[in-house]
């Protein structure tokens, strides 16, 4: 019988291996599959008792800890829609997502709580103020403790009638404008979990210990990592913050065998002269969320003897589209071939299909695709099921995909999407800024870095340093850390086309020349 609901994976595991450990935190707390099922059931019942109904939205601003997993799965069990967000988001970012999603309740840990409270104070009077449920610290006036939401007596929840029902809203840049919420159904999330599980050799086994350092609010951590653990009944080691040395210690201490990470991690680990010994328990490293240079893979594997497999994915695909585990033979620079059940094709500017190994915009088709963007399903897959990713690549004769460029101006910082429009709008709020343009620049640690070109009002007479400081200070208040400019260039003017559009290609060219040492 096919599953309709992600949380059914927990119930099945609790029936089959109740005493096996499912989750363990780096601090030592743990939960068995039976314990996880009990928590999920109690939270699902508690949501109903507190008036949260099927189809309503619940935001989760919680770090990588047991409570993220229990609340996410409890929300899905209750047939409510999960809205996982970065617990380090700024109040302005949170306020916008609360209002946009129509969130009825917010789970917040101690890291997110102050920003959540400030966000709710920023809401327009006509936006309903959601209830705040607090974990990790004491609730304030009008707030609930997580334990107060847990039901003492569990009421059975009827099975989800339709896997097309919305499971999660994940905010991403989409193809234009400010971040929008991708609508991921239970069907899409379950399909990608099964597509990944069909890869041979398998990425995970039931006896694996899987490193959970990738943020669970990000689709890679949420469905590629947590979803895989649920499917295979592996054990997930939850790590709230990435510290290069402490994570290596944890991998050794907890005998992690599967290590999913983002590309910037390699730059932190490669200089360690004892890296091979410290990664002794590891059988497989998985890299995703941004391209990884072939030289880095070669260096890492020659030092450690551990294979590194990477893939290509996106939030709208739940997320995994390709993997080098699906390649007929390893090809340097490839992000692998399509997973079972996923189709790829390339199209040109007129949407005609590209033949041979010429580059084109990547289109994807499969049951793992999202249902469009919230709230009306706009800009989703076309009538034939194809979704245009905005990425440019080429396919070799064996079906391996090679990424070339991006149609959209997305910047990817440590695997997180940054859309320049959002950053530019924030910079223009600063007194003394006449205009701004934001581009991505190559960065060894984060893959790309955000660089802002800023034009001051009335030239630069007011002082470049003063304006730089003002922009940085404002960005700290208004933007999450990964969205803030790593460098600010104060310039007399921006390069414009004849129609007045900023020539960002020229700015990116300047950044490439700077990386090559051709500019100071």
Automatic annotation (TrEMBL):
Pfam families: AMP-binding, AMP-binding_C. The keyword Aminoacyl-tRNA synthetase does not apply. This is Acyl--CoA ligase. Coiled coil: none annotated. It comes from Nocardioides pinisoli. GO terms for molecular function: ligase activity. Residues 11-374 form the AMP-dependent synthetase/ligase domain. Keywords: Ligase. The lineage of its organism: Bacteria, Bacillati, Actinomycetota, Actinomycetes, Propionibacteriales. PROSITE patterns: AMP_BINDING (PS00455). The keyword Ligase applies. Residues 422-501 form the AMP-binding enzyme C-terminal domain.
């Amino acid at each position: 019988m096919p599953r309709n609901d992600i949380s059914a994976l927990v119930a099945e595991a609790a029936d089959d291996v109740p005493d096996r450990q499912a989750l363990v935190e780096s601090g030592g707390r743990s939960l068995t599959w039976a314990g996880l099922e009990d928590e999920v059931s109690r939270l699902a019942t508690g949501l109903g008792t507190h008036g949260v109904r099927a189809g309503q939205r619940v935001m989760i601003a919680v770090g990588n800890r047991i409570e993220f997993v229990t609340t996410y799965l409890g929300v899905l069990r209750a047939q409510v829609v999960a809205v996982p967000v970065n617990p380090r988001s700024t109040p302005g970012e949170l306020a916008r997502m609360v209002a946009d999603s129509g969130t009825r309740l917010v789970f917040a840990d101690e890291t997110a709580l102050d920003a959540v409270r400030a966000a709710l104070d920023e809401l327009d009077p006509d936006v309903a103020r959601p209830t705040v449920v607090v974990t990790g610290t004491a609730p304030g006036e009008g707030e609930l403790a997580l334990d107060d939401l847990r039901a003492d007596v569990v009421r059975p929840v009827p099975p989800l009638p339709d896997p097309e029902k919305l499971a999660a809203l994940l905010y991403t840049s989409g193809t234009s404008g400010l971040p929008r919420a991708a609508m991921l159904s239970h069907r899409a999330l379950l399909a990608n979990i099964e597509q990944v599980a069909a890869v041979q050799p398998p990425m995970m086994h039931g006896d694996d210990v899987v490193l959970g350092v990738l943020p669970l609010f990000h689709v890679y951590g949420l469905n590629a990592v947590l979803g895989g653990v649920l499917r295979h009944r592996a054990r997930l080691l939850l790590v709230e913050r990435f510290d290069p040395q402490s994570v290596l210690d944890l991998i050794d201490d907890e005998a992690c065998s599967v290590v999913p990470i983002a590309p910037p991690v390699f730059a932190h680990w490669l200089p360690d002269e004892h890296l091979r010994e410290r990664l002794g328990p590891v059988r497989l490293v998985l890299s995703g969320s941004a391209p990884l240079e072939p030289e880095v893979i070669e260096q890492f594997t020659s030092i450690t003897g551990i294979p590194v497999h990477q893939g290509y994915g996106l939030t709208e695909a739940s997320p995994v589209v390709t993997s080098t585990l699906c390649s007929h033979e390893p090809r340097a620079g490839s992000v692998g071939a399509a997973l079972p059940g996923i189709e790829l094709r390339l199209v040109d500017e007129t949407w005609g299909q590209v033949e041979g190994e010429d580059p084109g915009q990547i289109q994807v088709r499969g049951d793992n695709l999202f249902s469009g963007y919230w709230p009306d399903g706009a800009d989703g897959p076309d009538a034939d099921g194809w979704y245009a990713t905005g990425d440019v690549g080429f396919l070799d004769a064996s079906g391996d995909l090679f990424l070339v460029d991006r149609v959209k101006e997305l910047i990817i910082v440590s695997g997180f999407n940054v859309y320049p429009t959002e950053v530019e709008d924030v910079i223009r709020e600063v007194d003394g800024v006449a205009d701004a343009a934001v581009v991505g620049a190559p960065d060894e640690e984060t893959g790309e870095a955000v660089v802002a070109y800023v034009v001051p009002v009335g030239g630069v007479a007011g002082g470049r340093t003063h304006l730089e400081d003002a922009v940085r200070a404002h960005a700290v208040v208004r933007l999450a850390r990964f969205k803030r400019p790593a460098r600010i260039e104060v310039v007399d003017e921006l390069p414009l086309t004849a129609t007045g559009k900023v020539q960002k290609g020229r700015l990116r060219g300047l950044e490439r020349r700077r990386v090559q040492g051709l500019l100071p």
